[in-house]
């Protein structure tokens, strides 16, 4: 299995299988890439239930964050790196919400993390408060409440775009408070928070025309020398896949990739004329 994973594999977005919109998946095999296409906003899972849909025990703490299960990756727009999360490139240390408050400045992006959950992003607007997309509504909450027991960190530098001034970031966030459901222009908390800080329409739903070649590449680091690459037509699509990987965790993602490589090798060996 190790030899099958130690390759640089490219999948075009068009070649990645999707899930049937009616909920009937007729094909067998791995689902690499866009199984989220017909799913609801992932932040719907964050209040009152766990990621598997079961009721959450309000007296039980969130599953502790495990840094060993962090999925390290980089995103490229054509040849330019626009996002990178790795031990070497970013400070991935996490803190309790109370300790993070001592480090936050207005306009900072905050990420809440817990094993087995989608990461939740928010914009710190000062006075111990954040604005965030939660359960299909943009809310102004205290940072400690928004954390829901999760660990957190400042993630201003994961995206490589030039940031707006702190006052404009806060203004962008506060002006959206109260929007919900069909009024929203974002499918997840990360897209909203990143839009507030960088102001790029690509973070919004339908912010780019999905025609022609896929200019975005998501590179998942398998080991120090090997990686797996997926291609996407829009930043929004790429973010959804990246968040799916974060939800699964490194162990599950590597297992999924190993299954994919194994099926590819098996298909090749079954082709006519193969040795």
TrEMBL record:
Domain LRAT, which positions?
110-205
Source domain of life is Eukaryota
Q: Which PANTHER family match?
A: PROTEIN FAM84B-RELATED (PTHR46341), PROTEIN LRATD2 (PTHR46341:SF2)
| Secretion signal span | none
Spans annotated as Disordered: 1-28
Descriptive protein name: Protein LRATD2a
What organism does the UniProt record list as the source?
A: Gymnodraco acuticeps
- Species classification: Eukaryota, Metazoa, Chordata, Craniata, Vertebrata
């Amino acid at each position: 299995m190790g030899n099958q994973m130690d390759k640089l594999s490219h999948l075009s977005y068009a070649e990645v299988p999707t899930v049937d919109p009616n909920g009937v998946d007729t094909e067998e095999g791995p689902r690499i890439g866009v199984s989220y296409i017909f799913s609801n906003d992932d932040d719907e899972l964050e209040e009152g239930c766990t990621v598997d849909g079961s009721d959450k025990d309000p007296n039980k703490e969130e599953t502790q964050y495990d840094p060993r299960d962090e999925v390290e990756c980089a995103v490229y727009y054509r040849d330019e790196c626009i996002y990178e999360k790795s031990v070497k490139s970013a400070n991935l240390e996490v803190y309790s919400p109370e300790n993070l408050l001592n480090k936050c400045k207005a306009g900072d992006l905050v990420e809440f993390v817990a094993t087995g959950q989608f990461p939740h992003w928010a914009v710190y607007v000062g006075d111990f408060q954040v604005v965030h997309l939660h359960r299909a509504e943009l809310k102004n909450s205290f940072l400690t409440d928004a954390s829901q027991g999760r660990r957190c960190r400042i993630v201003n530098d994961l995206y490589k775009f030039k940031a707006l001034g702190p006052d404009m970031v806060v203004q962008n966030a506060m002006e959206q408070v109260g929007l919900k459901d069909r009024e929203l222009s974002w499918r997840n908390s990360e897209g909203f928070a990143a839009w507030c800080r960088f102001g790029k329409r690509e973070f919004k739903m339908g912010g780019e025309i999905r025609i022609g070649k896929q200019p975005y590449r998501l590179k998942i680091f398998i080991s120090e020398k090997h990686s797996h690459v997926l291609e996407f037509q829009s930043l929004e699509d790429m973010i959804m896949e990246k968040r799916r990987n974060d939800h699964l965790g490194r162990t599950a993602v590597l297992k999924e990739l190993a299954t994919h490589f194994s099926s590819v090798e098996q298909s090749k060996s079954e082709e006519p004329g193969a040795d």
